[in-house]
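Holo prediction — fe (iii) ion.
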Amino acid sequence: MKTIDLHIHTNLSDGFLSPVRVVKEAKKIGLAAIAITDHDEIAGNEPAVLEGERLGMEVIPGMEISVDLDGRPAHMLGYFIDYRNPELIASIRLLQGYRRKRNPQIFRRLHQLGLMVTEQEVKEISGGNYIGRPHIAQALVDRGYVHSTAQAFEKYLGNGAPAYVQKQRFSAQQGIEVIRRAGGLAVLAHPFSLGAESEAELSTIVEHLKRMGLGGIEVFCSPHLEEQTELYLRLANNFNLLVTGGTDFHGEWKPHVQLGVGKGNLQIPYSLLEKMKKVHLAKYKLSASEVNF
Ligand code: AMP
Ligand code: FE
Ligand code: FE
Ligand code: ZN
């Protein structure tokens, strides 16, 4: 079976491999298509697409952003985006600004807790200008304050922990619009992160998002338990949303999740991408004249 991985981070956000390396690795393990979905960054798409053309590997342009849905955090994936769209580029700059504003506040909190990590050492870990919590977590490990990045999240950086600082975010509506106006398909990533407590609650949320223009649900993803996958599939079918899947690969930053197979057992069929292309691209062509994407 031809398989795909539509949720991959590179070293332009909190992944480990460069976009070009990701494409090479994907080719090596025989994936039929991939998407690069960095947090708040779209610059990995162009080199990945070019490398894909060179190696004969299908690369779907993508992105992942954090959005706010009435106080709930959610991750929104965008596929088939035009990464040269000026409005999208401006939105990404804005999101990067929100991130840059948050990070010094995290460092201040850590310092107040007696944990002396500096922005400079974290930048050395990330290897660039992007600083994400996984990089700060690694700095805490390197300094010996915690045993693992998981413990760093638990004790300090995770939602509700003492050094947690919420980033300014787009609303779900804004996030979906930004993606759609760049010609993209908006997909709800790993729906458990919404923290809904029942199927009925999640169903209401998904219905709400669909009215905002949501086009799909990430049904297959490494952290999903079997019953979650079944639930998300049910919701996608109920609301006539596209089904997508990816590992949420971060390389060494999440060593238990491997490219293409997640924790070892993911097999995401190429047929999902075929359907995404068929439905989304047809809709896009149809509405492009009306909506002025
Ligand atoms: P940030 O975008 O800087 O707020 O960091 C969010 C990223 O941190 C997520 O995409 C994950 O890669 C990682 N992350 C979030 N929560 C945890 C956790 N509890 N344990 C490990 N990694 C996490
Ligand atoms: Fe991440
Ligand atoms: Fe995510
Ligand atoms: Zn992700």
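READOUT: Confidence is low (pLDDT under 50) at residues 288-293.
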